[in-house]
Amino acid sequence: MTETAQALGSTGRGALRLAAYALWTVTLIPVQAVAVALKRPLRHRLPVFYHRACARLMGLDVVVRGQRATEGPVLFVSNHSSYLDITVLGSVIPGSFIAKTEVAGWPFFGLLAKLQRTVFVERKARTEVGKQRDDIGARLESGDSLILFPEGTSSDGNRTLPFKTALFAVASRRIAGKALTVQPVSVTPTRLDGIPMGIAFRPFYAWYGDMDLAPHLWQAFKLGGMTVEVEFHPPVTIDGFSSRKAIAEHCQRAVSQGVVRAVTGRHDAPALVEPQKAIA
Predict the structure, then answer these.
(1) Cβ atoms 140, 180 nearer than 8 A
(2) Which residue among 28, 153, 165, 251 is buried most deeply as judged by most CB within 10 Å?
(3) Which UniProt keywords apply (predicted)?
(4) CB–CB of 235/77 below 8 Å?
(5) Taking 90 as the threshold, does the pLDDT of residue 92 lie above it?
């Protein structure tokens, strides 16, 4: 069997990983449930610990570039190509996700989302934008950092879709008198067992369109080690922009350029977004 064939799947490896993942998850569910119910500080720390272990169990090597903003609550905005982004970002960011309401009803994964205190939003209901903005704002004002996928759907991983601006309205919030920190983040799968993924292999990570979840998830458990690069771009605030549309477009450019750098391996390529709009 060639190295490429081995990288693309081993049933035995998949079974072991799935069993380990299930045992690890079932063990921690009641711990997190109690922490959330009692509002203990552990409810913030345990998800990061959980996702880091899950990343190792699934053979995900998460490579971090740049510096994560750590002062005050932060709205992290990222591209989105797979449910695996949850594990990847969850392993490096202590925060909760913003997800579409349908996720709350998913078997098993809906429970995990609720235990990570996900904020659920109805992306298609324009009449709910104000309430959703207030719900997100309340969480930020309480000190929680949140992770937003502003593309509104998952992509094929080879490009970054335009960012929807509606939920960027929360960027105008001031927390303790200061403008909310917004940090763009790029997530890019780059290698499969050391082999550059390219367009041909990236769908093994990316889950989009009409792909069925169960077969894709099983394939992910069977795969060899995957390298996923996470790049934290300079944080910004609404104070450096004329509108929420302008800050959304800035974040989209920063994330898109980060994906291109990761795909091409040109990490020394200069950023083209306006540096004066980053927080000093």
Answers:
(1) yes
(2) 251
(3) Acyltransferase, Lipid biosynthesis, Lipid metabolism, Membrane, Transferase, Transmembrane, Transmembrane helix
(4) no
(5) yes
- Averaged pLDDT for residues 256-270: 82
Residue 78 sits at φ, ψ, to 5 deg, of: -135, 155
pLDDT in tens, 188-217: 999 988 888 888 788 888 888 778 888 888
Sketch out the chain's domains with CATH numbers: 3-266 (3.40.1130)
Q: State residue 62 phi and psi, 5-degree precision.
A: -90, 115
* Of 214 and 65, the one with more pLDDT: 65
DSSP 209: T
* Nearest C-alpha neighbor of 52 from the set 20, 89, 81: 89
Give the Å distances, CA to CA, from 173 to 73, 122, 190, 256: 11, 20, 35, 25
- Alpha-carbon span 171 to 158, nearest angstrom: 27
* Tokens representing residue 207 in the block: 């889950």
pLDDT computed for residue 159 by the predictor: 77
